[in-house]
Specification:
The protein is an all-alpha fold. The protein has helices spanning 2-11, 13-148.
């Protein structure tokens, strides 16, 4: 069957001419497409240095922006750290002063307590002495009363 078809095609010269015309048209379209693609590739190659340069510029801008941001952040953090250290130092000084005042107060309280303990000891001794004297006087009184009767 395929042999008969090829014979039919060959027998009709008009169809053969039209096909060859279509083939030529297809080839010229193909060549046109190839030429267009090559032109696009060349245009792309011509634009690559410009694109690379633009990418490099953006990269540099980002790098510079990040560097300045980092420096700014570092400066702010140093300032915050200095302020924090100053606040801590101030609080520490206040706490130290308050601790000294409390130590002084405790020392004074201890001195008062020591005085009171000494007075208490003296009073206890005196009370003991007076109690003994009272007992002795009571005994003497009892003895005198007994003798006087």
């Amino acid at each position: 069957m395929s042999g008969q078809r090829s014979q039919r095609k060959a027998k009709n010269p008009r169809k053969t001419w039209e096909r060859s015309r279509e083939e030529v048209s297809d080839e010229s379209e193909f060549e046109s497409d190839q030429t267009e693609k090559m032109d696009q590739a060349e245009a792309l190659k011509a634009g690559l240095p410009s694109i690379s340069s633009d990418i490099w510029d953006v990269k540099q801008e980002l790098r510079n922006g990040l560097t300045s941001f980092k420096d700014e952040l570092k400066g702010e953090m140093k300032q915050e750290n200095a302020n924090l250290m100053q606040d801590i130092e101030q609080k520490l000084t206040e706490n130290h002063k308050e601790l000294q005042e409390q130590r002084t107060s405790i020392t004074e309280a201890q001195a008062c307590i020591a005085e009171l303990e000494e007075c208490n000891t003296e009073a206890s001794d005196m009370l003991t002495k007076l109690t003994k004297q009272t007992c002795q006087m009571q005994d003497k009184l009892t003895d005198l009363e007994a003798r006087s009767r």
